[in-house]
Model the fold of this input.
Amino acid sequence: MKTIIEPFKIKTVEPIKFTTIQQREQLLRDAGYNPFLIHAEDVLIDLLTDSGTSAMSSKQWAGIMDGDESYAGARSFFRFEKSVKDLTGFKFIIPTHQGRAAEKILFTLLGGKGKYFPNNTHFDTTRANIEYSGAEAFDLLNEVGKSTETIADFKGDIDIPALERFIQEKGRENIPLLMLTITNNAGGGQPVSMKNIKQVRVIADKYKIPFFLDACRFAENAFFIKKREPGYQNKSVKEIAQEMFSYADGCTMSAKKDALVNMGGFLAMNDAELAGKARNILIVTEGFPTYGGLAGRDLEAIAQGLEEIVDEHYLTYRIRSVEYLGEKIRNAGVPFLEPPGGHAIYLDAKRLLPHIPPHEFPGQSIVCELYRLGGIRSVEVGSVMFGKNDQLTGKFIPSAMELVRLAIPRRVYTQSHIDYVAECVIEAFENRRNMPGYRITYEAPMLRHFTAQFEPLHPKRSL
Ligand SMILES: Cc1ncc(COP(=O)(O)O)c(C=O)c1O
Done:
């Protein structure tokens, strides 16, 4: 059979509220044209993020009931620890309340002034935790990964010669850790090849620097390796994931992605001394080492989710549903970052709205239009998120890319929801000449995209 179906039956449903275009125009005005500030119940299809938005399985919910809530030594912790060890092979497993809590502990220990951390592309919380420690974060993505149009298998790979030059330039003693983010969320959800992971291992050995994975979407990455990298077709996704982890010394993990839970994360590593120090910080900031920042029931749900995520029927449907959305909008000529990522489609606002310059935020214009037209919530990943004004001259420095991310929550939406999203994106594209640029009327000093307020400029019809 050619049709790929959702590999689950729906047992519980959550109604979604319908609104009219007129109501949404008012809601947008009230939210200062920032969909982050719209109440979720006024959103028809929420593609803001794939993080913590998964639908849990009946077995995960059963685990929630079965969770052992003992303060110390809970049975649920040992189930969680066993499942993470089985998957990653790491010796020390430290539960945290989400990914950034694992990052905070790791960079509190390894960061500080004069330290440098390379990655393919740091996710914003990783970068923020590194910078908060006083250290600096560097993105060394390969050239192909920087183009939105080139189709290539592993656009998440780190640039190996650049990484080696970087180590020689900064000095190995100033680089406490090498990192790879799999898949590369900030670079379009693109996968990293096993070859690239192995090459980073070689460099880590050569310069004696530990190597960690940011493993949030490890299963999606492993599935891409199975489909695209020679030599992996006959291996299971779990075996591929185990091999990926075997080249690393540790990982940070947001379980809100590829552990299919609404809250949770962990830090894992082989270095006993570092793990001891991490547990000391954990006790101060998160909780006792057998629960971290989590309840016993959360640990049960993660353990179960880690088993379900490597199911290849699930991953076939997952990757296909994102690709399906990409195919539909590609056929209508809508420009997006090719090829489709593992968890999201990233519309290319620069090519979609060439009449709106970066300082008028073309991505924000698309985000607002998708909500206005169809009640779809997406997120700008462009100059609202990453653009800055030069501190000395005040000159606007745009983001390298102007993207709009349509992140697909796991096991939540069906094919007809995705058809609806495609229809809405295509209609917005056809109406692009009437879409206005925006001006910021309020912004916070850090991470402004969450709370910024905007107002539309007059529509330009220069296309
Ligand atoms: C690649 C990557 N790393 C880290 C994080 C942070 O995880 P959390 O949101 O659980 O703190 C995210 C979240 O989106 C992510 O995508």
Notes: Residues 312-331 form the longest helix (20 residues). The two ends are 44 Å apart (CA to CA). Residues 383 and 426 are 23 Å apart (CA to CA). The chain has a mean pLDDT of 96.
